[in-house]
Structure formats: C-alpha cells, structure tokens
Amino acid sequence: AGEIDGGIIYQGANTPAHIVWGEIRKAWEADGGPNGQLGYPLSDEHPIANGLQSDFENGNITYIDGQTAVVTK
Prior knowledge:
By secondary structure, the chain is mostly beta strands. It is 12% helix and 44% strand. It has a 4-stranded antiparallel β-sheet, covered by helices on one side. Strands 1-2-3 form a 3-stranded antiparallel β-sheet, covered by helices on one side. It is globular. It starts with a strand and ends with a strand.
C-alpha cells in the first residue's frame, strides 16, 4: 500500500493496483480495508449517476449526494 495525495494505492496478490480516495476510502477503511468484508479494490473511483463508485472483490462503495454506502455481493 502507498499513500498519494489523500488516496491510498492497494494491490492484492491477485488484483492490480487501484487508488481508493476520500469518503470512499474512509468507508472502506472503517469496514476493515483489505481485511474487511469487501477485500481489495478492483477499480479506481468512477462516476455513476449522481456520484462516484469504487468496486471491490466482494462488493462496492458508492458516494452519492454526500453519503457513502457499502454494498456487499
């Protein structure tokens, strides 16, 4: 893992490196980060309707209208 300008770069043994930023990062770390229920990131943050989303091994985290939501598969 490496820190970069408010984001953190994570790479799992079987996943490529991705950056987790801002409020999504806070929610992911509060959920246990790579050792939590979501596991390692599978995407960088990307736009969705009304917000942003990062995808993880076992779900995703959305940031819509100032609120984060952790969604597991």
